[in-house]
Amino acid sequence: MVMMMRKGDANAEFRGSKASASLDLDGSGKASVRSGSGFMDHMLTALARTGQLDLTVQAEPGFYKTEALGAAIGQSLDSALADRSGIRRYGSASVPMDEALADVALDFSGRPYLIITGEFRGERIGDFDVQLLPPFLESICVGARLTLHIRFYGENDHHKMESVFKALGFALRQAVAKEGTGIPSTKGVI
Length: 190
Prior knowledge:
By secondary structure, the chain is of the alpha+beta class. Helix content is 33%, strand content 31%. The strands form 3 sheets. A 4-stranded mixed β-sheet has the order 1-2-4-3, covered by helices on one side. A 4-stranded mixed β-sheet has the order 5-6-10-7, with helices on one face.
């Protein structure tokens, strides 16, 4: 039996800002991340580790680099999944981090949609502006043609953000798991 390589690469541009991403869905959790933000690098490394995907990303300096980065990651996911045959399609995870908890549920439905519920106390975590989290995730959803629901709460902003990224990694690992051979849709296409 021949094992298909589930790898994807993408170059994305968002309002003049550029980023690239490469990932292997069947990796070991290795990350090489240069997003332009030390905190975002930390979050994407956590996502790769919990998702057990090998992830390489780079964003060029620019006002919309975070959105470009999300688009590149989403498009590389879409490319790696090809026609999505054989995947579980759905994934969900709850990840606690001390007093914080994040719940993530997702569906590789072909219909991009983001719902995020939770608040941060401050405007920044390290060098990352927390207002950029929703547009980053929305760019992933559009690029990957993914429906994503996130709920989080807690006291410490770093813990809340990290629990979101780790839960997203676990949910992705679950959703892209190989379960069969057909396209997981009653319509036969996603």
